[in-house]
Amino acid sequence: LLNDISDFRKTVYLLFGYKIDVVQEHQYRLSSLYAEQQEDHLLFEYSVGDKKMRMLETDFSLTIGEDAMKL
Q: Of the candidates 18, 26, 58, 66, which has an alpha carbon nearest to the alpha carbon of residue 40?
């Protein structure tokens, strides 16, 4: 099963250009295959209480504009 999950993640990354990594519990990093720098990623946090995902501020998120922060 672990190998199937790994294969699925690689396939999604190659097909769509994005990968999601678990940073810590309820926190996820979205990285693009086409990012100019490895540090160019978005960070999200899932709030169990209100069942919402919110984007956290990163150096990269500050460069993409305010409209992208509204999910």
A: 58
Report d(CA 50, CA 23) in Å as an integer: 20
Q: What is d(CA 8, CA 2) in angstroms, rounded to the nearest whole number?
A: 10
C-beta separation of 35 from 18 below 8 A: no
Q: Which two tokens stand for residue 53?
A: 């995902």
CA–CA dist 9, 5 (Å, integer)? 6
- Angstrom distance (rounded) from CA 4 to CA 66: 37
In angstroms, the CA 30 to CA 40 distance is: 9
Query: Which H or E run includes 20?
Result: strand 18-24
For the stretch 4-53, pLDDT in tens is: 999 999 999 999 999 999 999 999 999 999 999 989 999 999 999 999 99
